[in-house]
């Protein structure tokens, strides 16, 4: 049994910790806001009261952004031989800029799939770097897709989210056009679910998806530091216009929520 620490028990970190426990691993969790460790603790995780107390062979970070990852790594005192698995979506440059302590290996493994997929081991993990030592742990969470050297998983993750967010934005605009034409949301979405935007329609109506619009906007910001084609800029504008940035991304599509 490998000892694993999950740092960050937000939506995804809690689901990851719960899944790792359910597959027989020993899991310690830490979160900046201690109250948010309760669900993982109830599922059997140990709770570290400080980052300096975290002691595990595999340390997973699942945090909001690069600033959070830097803050957390600064407080860690990992022993030599630890493998640090960076799962947050922070982009390849931020991954490559991480400076692990001596003897600590870093791999990037951002994930495709939301909370339900994390809880059931149905994620796709896009890995960069040498994952041989952590592959059994990652396989408990989903399908491992080795992308190449450090940062290459983070790069492919931004490709995935460019498609996801622009696809959802295109679907949102298409339903807005349907409304302007007097077409019922349900009729439009049923038709669209069988056309070229089928993947976006499936995602918009998916139960168990909890990827806030604010985090999707953060990912488009990461993309736009590298490339800013018109559809990406347009999708960013669609997200900015949303009334509730804490709601799931699918809610930018009118009528999609009613289909969950
Ligand atoms: N939600 C999804 O469906 C999904 C899917 C794939 C990838 N992702 C990516 O996975 C990552 C986590 O997403 P999430 O949905 O789990 O977000 P979340 O629920 O908002 O959790 C964010 C976590 O980051 C912590 N954090 C933020 N700033 C921090 C700081 N400065 N120092 C220490 N901890 C800090 C938060 O701690 P507090 O509780 O103290 O605020 C919390 O544990 C993001 O990069 C996201 O883009 C999300």
Count every helix, treating DSSP H or I runs of 4 or more residues as helices.
11
Termini separation (Å)? Answer: 38 Å
- Tell me the CATH superfamily of the largest domain: NAD(P)-binding Rossmann-like Domain
Overall radius of gyration: 19 Å
> What's the overall geometry?
globular
- Poorly predicted runs are none
CATH topology of the largest domain: Rossmann fold
The helix fraction, in percent, is 40-55%
Strand order of the largest sheet: 3-2-1-4-5-6
Question: Strands, helices and their partners?
Answer:
Layout: E1 3-7, H1 11-22, E2 26-30, H2 38-42, E3 46-47, E4 58-61, H3 66-75, E5 83-86, H4 92-97, E6 105-108, E7 111-112, H5 115-120, E8 123-128, H6 135-139, E9 142-148, H7 152-180, H8 185-192, H9 198-204, H10 213-224, H11 230-240
Parallel strand pairs: 1-2, 1-4, 2-3, 4-5, 5-6, 8-9
Antiparallel strand pairs: 7-8
Bound molecules: NADP nicotinamide-adenine-dinucleotide phosphate (NAP).
